[in-house]
Amino acid sequence: MRTAINLDDLDLFLNERRKGFLLERVTLHDAKGWVVEHGILKHRTGGFFNVVGVNFESGEDRIFLYQPQSAVTGLLTSSFDGQWHVLMQARAEPGTQGTAQYGPTIQSTLANYLGLHGGRPAAYTDHFIRYQSSVRRVIHDSEQLDLGERYLHKSKRLAILECDPDIEVADGYIWVPEKLIRESVTLSYFLNTDLRALLAVFPWEGEPGIESSLVPACQLVRESLTRPIDPNVIGAICAKLSARVRHGNFKELSDLENWNISGNGFFEKKTLQGFAIEFYYCEATGREVRSWFQPLVNSRGTGYAALYCREVGGALEVLVRIGSESGLKTGHALLPTVLDYPDCTRTMRPAPGKVLLSTMESDEGGRFRHDLSRYELVLVPRDYGLADDLFWVSIAELKWFLANSNLCTIQLRGLSSMLLGELPC
Fold first, then answer.
1. Nearest to 54 by CA among 44, 66, 62
2. N or C: which end of the chain has fewer CB within 10 A?
3. β-bridge partners, 35
4. Which pTM value belongs to this model?
5. pLDDT digit string (tens) for 138-169?
6. Which residues are within 8 A (CB) of 34 and not within 5 positions of it... i.e. 6 or more apart?
7. Residues paired with 332 in a beta bridge
């Protein structure tokens, strides 16, 4: 059984996955399998994802990644040696900062587990899509929203399963105990955003000894988990989440007024969305295929996501915002207090209080080329001003929203995972 003992173990294991990695910029002509047909960029198999143009009712044109099939993102977990463990994958990705980060047990699109890439099946896929006797029970299963300003109407399945501890550990995978999880969430460029999202929806408890749960390191967070959920808060937020979806129609890429479409990539004439689409050749060890071509989103800038916190009666509360994003299938969702997508024109705003924890994260490395964001938990005064779209919630109430389908953005899930770590408050 391959199990991490400390962070040094995890660092060494991750470094092994960085070996043999290659990424080279190419043209669309050289990007084998990818073609612009009928006004969209697509893979000849019809799988993976498309790059599409959309014209909204307001007259605004935008480019999105379009992947209507739901991906499967899952964690296998088990209890042994007196702690809960999760099975993580050291995963090299073409767009990941530092080449490799830890990801979930499985992070697979429909095209991948149907084998459209022509490579070997992803390890542990059958645990999440077919009956396996080694799976004891389902701990969590939901549909969750993805990046609403990059994807069009995308959600993915998040699943956490308890399994037998003696299952075979595949190459590139390692069991990580709860203690190291609490340390890992405080590190930059270490856990990818899909893994952070799963840790956020994992059941948490305010005290140890509860079956199938993680226990945050901070006493203020643990205390907040024990507070009763206020149905009035839940009702008020859900009422505001019912706003309509933003409607639009597909538009051929060549007809988009603000975009130059060429074999070298897709580039904005005037910075509005803040990214380009470029083409790459990639080689990586330990993946289902040894090499492949693909387009990547490149923002060439840094985003910012912050979750404001306050202490009330010995417990921590967080400030969530109801907002809309152009590509969200629900129209509106719960966002962090502050959210700026990566954009080369963006400037970092100062925090209005004490920064409890700050990390740097890169968006999903399989689709994005070093799209970086700073994530911060910020302690603000108890009487910090409110607006109509902002709500203070306990950690127990936050977890209620996180556990339900398609209510929270991926950035809110990522920031929430940081609440598992030790905080100086």
1. 62
2. N
3. 42
4. 0.94
5. 999 999 999 999 999 999 999 999 999 999 99
6. 28, 41, 42, 43, 44, 279, 293, 294, 295
7. 324
